[in-house]
Design goal:
heterotrimer; A alpha/beta (about 325); B mainly alpha (about 325); C mainly alpha (about 300); A: about 325 residues; alpha/beta; Rossmann fold; 8-stranded mixed beta sheet; 11 helices; 12 strands; about 25% strand; globular; C: about 300 residues; mainly alpha; MetI-like fold; two-stranded antiparallel sheet; about 70% helix; elongated
């Protein structure tokens, strides 16, 4: 598999609390040195608690917010340079937002919303309208009934189908799904997930599937990336990660799932409290304040993402050879 | 609290400088020679030049502005071209007179507006609400200078209860707090009060209705708090905003008194402004507008800080 | 704004829902106060347009013999003014200048203020700071004071007072436009439009304008009543319309001397201003609640 999208050293700091003269006094470190690849044809799951930088990552990938540092390459070409201008990149990568209502313009009809992207890219009116109609049909909305409707006349599931059609209207190769089904009822959610699987097959799409729902991610994704406070905690094939997680944070997240097996039911909350304030994140490993295995090294040094096998890596001092943590493996000779 | 106040004061400085710049520029917007009102049409060029130097009109604009600003900060607003008296003294006297009717008007408007607003908010949808809302619409729609004339027609001309115009025997120079003089205040103040009455009634109605629909009120009633106790909670929640609106209305009335003062020949800043415009007394015009605008800015500042002291939620915004 | 024409597209018959403004109009039509107010406004505009056909007499022709006749006099249903001109005709003709001066400055200010506010709101950053802080300076003047000061400095006349009134209404409209636009700019659908590769101008035209123009327009409408009162006020002070033009504010001024002899006559021009401003206010209130559609 080749990397379709390569993310290297992505950083985003949001200024907060600007002083009297407009100079920022402090920053929120939303995304901190993020590296990952998105392979052609795969679904990569991105999980983490709310506020861990998942949505910021999505917006950074779409260049809806400017990164503080880092590069994004699409098929080896750096995005936003003359190699691959933004407009061309955006035809290849599209996004579905969480809030189905807020992401559709209330003054445009469904068909107008879907046809907007193609029109911007110079497709003729008739062609754009025809494309909108066939896509609406494809996502399960009869164009004769729905094309002329406005957003407030649709249900949440219908609106999210429109958003998917809108994202597909530019015939992209990558779809970023930012909590795209999180706000839907469970039954509707299942229908939309199945639709997404069908569409992936039909249009040969690659998905970056962002969610806080571990069950849904397990259903959708072949690989999973776990984020904690803007950094990668663990990255690996879904089954390997769900059955043999190596980062205490991943283990804790998985422990919070309700098990069908009474013997495996968690007796107490695996992680206590809220995530620390990202304005002043903890030094060293950002998880050490809530980690039950934390040792002095955890608060002083940032753990390196260490490969564990062919497709599994983790950023934890317990898995990093010679890190100085009591549980760390010996450094290879 | 103090940091917030300090920050607000700091933020007001550029506005104040901007306001002074606008006041200064006004004079140079005016077409024609700034000395046109004092010079006879056949004045010689030599006299003209001499006066231009005397008033400083021969200097570049930025220098005139800086000089004017420095002097203004020291309380010297120049000399009235028409009367030859210091502008600051003329304004000081007039401001006092305008403050009298504006304060009285704000007070009347606040009392009536709050009353109408509470009634309307408490009995939403009833005929009382409709009546109070009608009063509010009347307040914001009526041309107050016309209302002033109507009041003069009714209470001065027809009934003869109150004097139609002026500030009483001897004018404002001889002002005393007795009935002979105070009765001159009534018609202008009542006329003026209509505007804040309408605006305060609308604000209070919306606030009362919103607070009464909140869950904590239902909670208070559910735990058996008598209606009077509930009312106290409503008042506590309405007070900061309505007081703030009142403060800002006072500023509007002070700055916008010209029409009513013209109707009632009341010797305040409005009448002064009127004279300054029609006599083309530019230093007086400039000074009066500056004082009124700065007063308005300062009042906004005070209201803001005061409101944040009453309602700590404001500071976070 | 329509990207997809109504009717048959690519062989599919499309059922189109009634648009936003159709819904608003329908809701407006169910508010009796607002409908009556709108009819009065239309009537006043018709009166101004058809003044030469409606007025029974020449509004400029006066005779000192028949000065200050009371309303109800023979041949002069609303009496005559201080120069013996027919009041009814002057009131009818007065609608022309009075409405013109009440409406045109607001629309001029709407064009300027909305442009400033939308640009400031959409672009944000330093552009926003510079534009909006400049507006704040003008906002720091009470509106009557600013109008009088500008009109006074520019000198009397219709054009000057309309210019002054326009300047008075630009900052408040810009402020509303800025806050509405800032609210829309961060909405996901604008983000989605950006993500589809659209440039700023297309996004403003197709995605932003439709959502901000409504609220800005309603706000501007609510200023017409204020502008009417201010414009007539300027004429009343002698800063606006010059005699012998018939204007309600100016008539109020010139008839003031007759307050003891013909009080009813003096009240008439002001009554016209009042009717106009209250009708605009009620109409705007109705429009505002009609536009407040919750999904």
């Amino acid at each position: 598999m080749t990397a379709l999208l390569e993310v290297r050293g992505l950083v985003k700091n949001f200024p907060v609390n600007t002083g009297v003269f407009g100079r920022p006094k402090s920053f929120v470190s939303a995304v901190d040195h993020l590296d990952f690849d998105l392979h052609e044809g795969e679904t990569l799951g991105l999980v983490g608690e709310s506020g861990c930088g998942k949505s910021t990552t999505a917006r950074l990938l779409m260049h809806l917010v400017a990164p503080t540092a880092g590069t994004i390459r699409f098929e080896g070409r750096t995005v936003g340079t003359s190699e691959l201008p933004l407009k061309a990149f955006r035809r290849q990568v599209q996004m579905v937002f969480q809030d189905s209502y807020a992401s559709l313009n209330p003054r445009l009809t469904v068909a107008e919303s879907v046809a907007f992207g193609p029109l911007v890219h110079g497709v003729s009116r008739d062609e754009a309208a025809a494309r909108a109609n066939s896509l609406l049909e494809r996502v399960g909305l009869d164009p004769a009934r729905f094309a002329g409707r406005f957003t407030h006349e649709l249900s949440g599931g219908q609106r999210q189908r429109v958003n998917i059609a809108r994202a597909l209207a530019l015939q992209p190769r990558v779809l970023i799904l930012d909590e795209a089904v999180s706000a839907l009822d469970k039954s509707v959610e299942a229908q939309v997930l199945n639709l997404l699987l069908d569409l992936k097959e039909e249009f040969h799409l690659t998905y970056l599937f962002i969610s806080h729902d571990l069950e849904v991610v397990r259903f959708m994704a072949a690989r999973v990336l776990v984020m904690y406070l803007g950094r990668v905690a663990e990255l690996g094939a879904t089954e390997a990660l769900y059955t043999g997680s190596r980062h205490p944070y991943t283990t804790a997240l998985l422990g919070s799932l309700l098990s069908m097996d009474p013997d495996h039911r968690a007796e107490s909350a695996p992680i206590a409290g809220d995530p620390p304030n990202p304005i002043d994140p903890p030094a060293g490993c950002r998880f050490h304040t809530r980690c039950s295995f934390a040792e002095p090294v955890c608060s002083s040094r940032v753990p390196v993402l260490t490969p564990l096998g062919s497709a599994h890596s983790v950023a934890c001092h317990m898995s990093e050879p010679g890190s100085g943590h009591g549980c760390a493996p010996q450094r290879a000779a | 609290m103090f940091t917030y106040a300090a920050k607000r004061v700091l933020m007001t400085m550029p506005i104040m400088i901007g306001v002074s710049l606008v006041c200064f520029a006004l004079v140079h917007l005016a077409p024609g020679d700034p000395l046109i009102s004092v010079l006879p049409p056949d004045a010689s060029q030599a006299i003209k030049d001499q006066l231009m130097v005397l008033y400083g009109f021969d200097r570049p604009y930025y220098e005139q502005f800086l000089r004017w600003l420095v002097r203004a900060v020291q309380g010297d607003l120049g000399t009235s071209i028409r009367t030859g008296r210091p502008v600051a003294a003329e304004i000081f006297k007039a401001v006092g007179n305008t403050l009298m009717i504006a304060t009285l008007a704000t007070f009347i408007g606040f009392v009536l507006g709050t009353f109408f607003g509470f009634v309307a908010g408490y009995f939403r949808g009833s005929w009382l609400d409709k009546l109070a809302s009608a009063a509010a619409v009347f307040g914001v729609s009526v041309p107050h200078y016309w209302l002033g004339m109507i009041l003069v027609i009714v209470f001065a001309v027809q009934l003869g209860w109150l004097p139609p115009t002026g500030a009483g025997p001897g004018g404002s120079e001889d002002w005393r707090w007795n009935w002979v003089h105070v009765q001159h205040l009534i018609l202008p103040a009542v006329t003026m009060s209509v505007i804040p009455m309408g605006i305060i009634a609308r604000t209070v109605r919306a606030l009362v209705a919103e607070i009464l629909s909140q869950e904590f009120i239902a909670g208070l009633r559910a735990k058996g708090l008598p209606e009077l106790g509930v009312f106290r909670h409503v008042v506590k929640n309405v007070a900061p905003t309505s007081l703030a609106v009142m403060g800002i209305q006072l500023g509007y009335l002070l700055g916008g008194s010209i029409l009513i003062e013209t109707v009632f020949a009341w010797p305040g800043t409005g009448l002064l402004l009127n004279d300054a415009i029609f006599q083309r007394d530019l230093p007086l015009l400039q000074g009066t507008i500056l004082v009124l605008a700065l007063f308005f800015v300062a009042l906004n500042l005070v209201v803001d800080v005061f409101q944040s002291a009453l309602d700590p939620r404001i500071q976070r915004a | 704004m329509s990207a997809v024409p109504d009717g048959v597209v690519a062989g599919v018959a499309i059922a189109r829902s009634p648009g936003y403004w159709v819904t608003v109009l329908w809701r407006f039509s169910r508010d009796p106060f607002a409908v009556v107010a709108a009819l009065v406004v239309l009537g006043l505009i018709a009166m101004a347009v058809f003044a030469p056909w409606l007025a029974p007499q020449d509004p400029f022709h006066g005779m000192s013999l028949r000065r200050l006749r009371p309303p109800g006099s023979e041949g002069y249903p609303l009496g005559t003014d201080e120069l013996g001109r027919d009041m009814l005709s002057r009131l009818i003709y007065g609608a022309r200048i009075s409405l013109f001066m009440g409406i045109v400055p607001v629309f001029a200010a709407l064009a300027v203020g909305a442009s400033i506010g939308i640009v400031a709101g959409y672009v944000g950053g330093w552009t926003n700071t510079v534009l909006m802080r400049t507006m704040d300076v003008f906002f720091a003047f009470p509106s009557v004071l600013l109008a009088v000061a500008l009109a006074g400095a520019l000198g009397p006349g219709i054009l000057n007072s309309m210019l002054a009134l326009t300047l008075v209404f630009v900052p408040p409209i810009a402020r509303v436009a800025e806050s509405v636009t800032t609210g829309v700019r961060t909405r996901d659908y604008v983000e989605a439009a950006k993500a589809s590769g659209a440039g700023a101008l297309i996004i403003i035209r197709k995605q932003v304008l439709g959502n901000v123009l409504g609220p800005i327009f309603v706000y501007a409408m609510s200023l017409i009543a204020v502008c009417m009162i201010l414009a007539s006020g300027l004429s009343f002070l002698g800063l606006g319309v010059k005699p012998p033009q018939p204007d309600w504010g100016l008539m109020l001024n010139t008839l003031r001397t007759a307050i003891y002899t013909q009080p009813l006559l003096c009240a008439l021009p002001g009554l016209m201003i009042f009717i106009t401003s209250i009708s605009f206010n009620l109409m705007t209130d109705g429009l505002r609640s009609a536009m407040d559609i919750k999904a």
